[in-house]
Amino acid sequence: MTKLGKWYEESWIQLPRSDFFCAEEAGYYFKPNLVPVSLHPLVKEAGVGVSEELQILHLYHYLDDVDTLETEVINKSLQNIFRGSIPLHIPNELWGDAYKIYIDEGFHAFMSYELKNEISAQTQIKYSKPHILQTVTSVNEQIDLVDPELWPLAQLLASATNETMISANLLQCNDVGLKPTISTYLSSHLRDEAKHHIYFAELFQVVWNQLLLSEKKTLGLMLPKIIKSLLSINKRSICLDLIQVGFDRGNAELIFEESYQGYNQTISRPVKSTLRLFEKCRIFEIKEVRNSFLEEKIILPIN
Ligand SMILES: [Fe+2]
Ligand SMILES: [Fe+2]
């Protein structure tokens, strides 16, 4: 028992107690086609256990991504709303809901941490110490490039971009081959995120419509870079996973290259609804912004 005692039962907020029994369940830890290296012939040759270990490591990284992105980026932008740091008119209803989403995201981060610990205890497959991941660092680098006066707005628009994207990682919850515990974790998260999507789409429009043209240009140029950061593949981390399961550096790089060939050349499905939102806000009518999306090879919606 920790210093917080029976926190689940006694804290003011009554959270559902989640027990995770992944190791005893049939199914995979992560949909194999979302972990392309686990399907590589050299990995298959090494045995089912190696493929499964790579899927577990991939799940850890995904859970770390949820933990860090939702607390370091999304919740910081929500704080800016309920602290009144956004220098624009934000309707009351959106202020109040910012607190609710802040709690949701904190809970998602905590559940991700709990699930990761349980799986590690059950499988004895270790995870590296939680750290700020490449995604968060890369999103923050893009935000840092704009004028410091625009940082709260940049962070808010980056959050809205993330929250309106439809994650293939969450959508895999409908896959019958997934372990029930993972599927339940993902579908519960997806239910909350569907509501966050509606909130952030509304918030984005409210904010964007109040910006000056010069602000729209600066922040609009940042948006395709944010999309790229959110969808980027972490080669270093994937190669380290391959080394952890027994491959040498040369084979790890080879497996990575062959597995991800052409994987990220065009960005389409996850950002469709985000791009439609941008179009609704007439973002692409600003020539410089439109060109910046095209330069990043992002296919724009057709009117
Ligand atoms: Fe979340
Ligand atoms: Fe969210």
What can you tell me about this protein's structure?
It contains 13 helices and no strands. The protein has 303 residues and is an all-alpha fold. The protein has one domain (37-262): Ribonucleotide Reductase, subunit A, CATH 1.10.620. Helix 3 packs antiparallel against helix 4 and helix 5 crosses helix 6. The mean pLDDT is 92. Residues 74, 105, 163, 193, 196 line the site of one fe (ii) ion.
Low-confidence stretches: none
Radius of gyration (CA) equals: 20 Å
Shape: globular
Care to count the β-strands?
A: 0
Give a short overview.
The protein contains 13 helices and no strands. The protein has 303 residues and is mostly helical. The protein has a single domain, classed as Ribonucleotide Reductase, subunit A (Orthogonal Bundle).
